[in-house]
Amino acid sequence: MNEMQEANEIDEDSELDINEYKDENQVIINTHERVNLDLNGTIEKLESGYVESKLVTIPEMVADDLGLVHGGFIFSAADFAAMVAVNEKNVVLVASECQFLSPVKFGDVVYFKAKVRHKEGRKRNVNVTGYVLDIKVFEGEFKTVVTERHVLKLKLLDTEKED
CB-based contacts of 143: which residues, under 8 Å, 6+ apart? Predict the structure, then answer.
């Protein structure tokens, strides 16, 4: 048997086990996978219960002629970081308490850190902070719930009456 035949035989007999190449400590995003990352930030670091993300401000976020970024974009990026820190498929925001500590302007890069602080049953509380350089611009506590099914598929109100 020549070398080419031996190589083909080895290829046919051996199957590539993709799990051999996976990092066991790698955490993948399980939620909000269709979010627009340009408007909500990109995940820079992901660990169980912890996220670091980065929001690069863009012209679509500007609220006035001086380049002020609308706070809703800051909130949205913080909320996204909180959801990914929980990292459950069906996590939803139920309440938040936030402080906008300093204005953000066009061209700023906001770095967020989100950490799950409390876990009780289906409830998760996530603390999120946002910084531009070394200036804290945002701090918030996000209260979330993990539901069994997608929130839009839950029967929240019994509006249908049986005959």
Answer: 93, 94, 95, 96, 123, 124, 125
Distance CA 42, CA 107 (A): 16
In the predicted structure, residue 12 carries a pLDDT above the cut 70? no
Helix (H, G, I), strand (E, B) or coil at 74: helix
Q: What is the pTM of this model?
A: 0.78
Structure tokens at 111: 């770095």
Is residue 128 within 8 Å of 81, Cβ to Cβ? yes
CB 129 within 8 A of CB 113: yes
Task: Tell how strand 109-120 and strand 91-100 pair up.
Answer: unpaired
Surface-to-core class of residue 145, CB atoms within 10 Å of its CB (0-12 exposed, 13-18 middle, 19+ buried): middle
16: confidence class by pLDDT, cuts 50, 70, 90: very low
